[in-house]
Amino acid sequence: MSTENTAVRQAPRGERIADWADGRLGIYGLAKANMRKIFPDHWSFMLGEVALYSFIIVILTGVYLTLFFHPAMNEVVYHGSYVPLQGVRMSEAYASTLDISFDVRGGLLIRQIHHWGALIFIAAMFVHMMRVFFTGAFRKPREVNWLFGFLLLVLGMFTGFTGYSLPDDLLSGTGVRFMEGAILSVPIVGTYLSFFLFGGEFPGTDFVPRFFSVHVLLLPGLMVGLLVAHLILVFYHKHTQFPGPGKTNKNVVGMPLLPVYMAKAGGFFFLVFGLIAVIAGIASINPIWALGPYRPDQVSTGAQPDWYMGFSEGLIRLMPGWEINFAGHTLALGVFIPLMIFPLVLAAIAVYPFIESWVTGDKSEHHILDRPRNAPTRTAFGVAWLSVYFILLVGGGNDIWATHFHLSINAITWFGRIGFFVVPVLTFIVTKRICMGLQRRDRDKVLHGRETGIIKRLPHGEFIEVHEPLSREKLHTLTQHHQYEPHEIGPEVDENGVRRKIKRSEKVRALFSRGYYGKENQISKPTAQEYEEITSGHGHH
User: Fold this and answer.
1) Are 273 and 360 spatial neighbours (Cβ–Cβ below 8 Å)?
2) What pTM was computed for the model?
3) In this protein, which residues make up the domain named Cytochrome b/b6 N-terminal region profile (predicted)?
4) What is the pLDDT of residue 1?
C-alpha cells in the first residue's frame, strides 16, 4: 500500500501578514464598510480639505523647527551669521530663531512654510465654516460637529498667537505685552492671572518656555483630538450635498472614497503643499532679523498681529479709554469691556445652530444643503457678522490705514466706532433684500422660463420677449427647498374665555419665527397649480 504525500499550499507572506493583522485589528471589515463610501463632488467641499492639509503641513514643519529651537529666555550675545545683530544681547529663543533662519539648512524656508501654512489653515477653517453656515450644513444631526469646528477655529487662533510669540522679537513681544494689558484689566484677579501666566512681573523669564509647551503639546494635542472626532462624525453622518435631481436626504450622489476620491485628495494635498511652498519662497513673512530682539521699553512701528487676531485689537483700539474707581479699585473699562466682547463675538458663531433649531422647531435630519438666498435672514445675519469682523479688522490697523492712505487716524477710529453699530444693520438689510430679490427672480424663472433675448412681434402688433421653459432638473433645483411656517402662539384665551398664561420664551420664539419665516421675509414658492395654469395659458411665450 503506497501513501502519497500531499503538500499543503501556504499563502504568500503578504497575505499571511494581512490575515494576522486583520484577526487582531479588524482592518478588513472596517475597510470594506467604509472604503467605498460615497462623497459628493463640489468645489466648496475642498475648503475643508485645504484646512486639513495645511494643518498637516504645519505639524510636519513644526516638528522640524522644534529640533533647532531653544525655548529659553536666558540672555546671550549673538555671534551668528547675521552681521547687523552681531554683539547684540538677546534671548536664547531669539538667537536660535536667527540660527534657524540663517544657519540651518532649509531653516528659513521651513519657517516661512510653517507661518504661511498656519495663516492658510485658519483662513481655510474660517471660510469653510462660513460655507457650512450659509448653506445650513450645521443643522441636525451636525450641531455637535459644528461645535467641534468652532473649537478648532478658536484653538487654531490661540495656537497661532503662542506660535508667533515664541521668537521673542520686537513685534511678537509687543503682541504679548498687549495681551498682558488685557489680562491686567480684569477686576481684582487680573494681577494674579498675569503673575501666574508670566511667572512674575512681565516679561519675566518663563513665558517663552510656557508658551512653547502650550504651542507644541497642549493645543496641537487638543486640535488633533477634535479633528479626529470631526472626521469621524463626517463619516458617520455622511456628507451633505447641494440640491439636484436624484439627491435626497436618504442618499448621497458622488464618487466612492476608493479609488477616485482618495486619488483626487492625494493630488490635492500636494497642490496645497506646493502652493504654500511657493508663497513661502517668494513672499517673506515675519522677518525677525529686521525687527530686533524684544525690549520692554520699545515698540515696533506699525506693530500688527496676524489677521485672525486683528479684530481683538480693533475692539480695544476703537473703545474709548474709560476708567472708573470702584471700591478702591481702578477699573480700566476701555480694555475690560472689549475683553468681554471678544468671546461674545466668537460665541455668537457657536450657539447659532441651536438658536435656529429652537426658532424653527424642526427635529428632522437635513443632508441637503440650502441655497443661501432661500434662507435670507440667516444669510443676512452671517453677512452682518462678517461686517463686524472687518470693521474691527480696520480698527485694529487704524495706524496703517492712516499712513498708507493719508487719512486722519481719529477719523478712522470714529468710523470704526460708529460703523461697529451701523454697518451690521445696513448689511443685514441690504443682504436680506438681495436674497428676497433673488427668490423673486427664481419664482419668475419657474413660472415664465428663462429669458432668451429673442424679441417676437405678435400678429396684433405687440412685441414680446420669448421665454424658454426650464428643464425639469432646473425646476427641481429652484423649488425643492422647504419653507417653514412662522410659529404661532395661538389664541390668548382658552375655550372657556380664561386668559392663557403664555411663557415669555414662547413670545420670543414667535417673534423670531416671524422675523425668519413671515410673509415679508420669504417669497412663497410657486405651486404646481400656478405652474400648470401659466404654462398652459397665454401668459407663457
Assistant:
1) no
2) 0.88
3) 17-243
4) 47
Indicate the burial class of 236 (C-beta count within 10 angstroms; 0-12, 13-18, 19 or more): exposed
Cα atoms in the 13 Å half-sphere on the side-chain side of 198: 20
Number of structural domains the chain divides into: 2
User: Domain check: are 388 and 301 in the same one?
Assistant: no
pLDDT score at 77: 94
- Stated as kind and residue range, the H or E segment containing 300 is none
Cα distance between residue 447 and residue 435, in whole Å: 19
DSSP notation for 307-374 = GGGHHHHHHHHHS----EEETTEEE-HHHHHHHHHHHHHHHHHHHHHHHHHHHH---S---BPPPGGG
In a shared domain, residues 55 and 195: yes
- Provide CB contacts within 8 A for 317, sequence distance 6+: 395, 396, 398, 413, 416
Both 110 and 43 in one domain: the answer is yes
Last residue of a domain, one of 331, 349, 370: 370
Q: Are 80 and 99 in contact (CB under 8 A)?
A: yes
Residue 291 structural domain: 38-370
For helices 143-165 and 333-360, the axis angle rounded to 10 degrees is 160
Q: Cα–Cα distances in Å, from 336 out to 179, 181, 345, 480, 500?
A: 12, 10, 15, 48, 44
Contact 154, 343 (CB under 8 A): no
* Furthest-apart CA atoms within the chain: distance in Å: 112
Looking at 353, 370, 387, which one is the last position of a domain?
Answer: 370
Nearest to 105 by CA among 56, 72, 68: 68
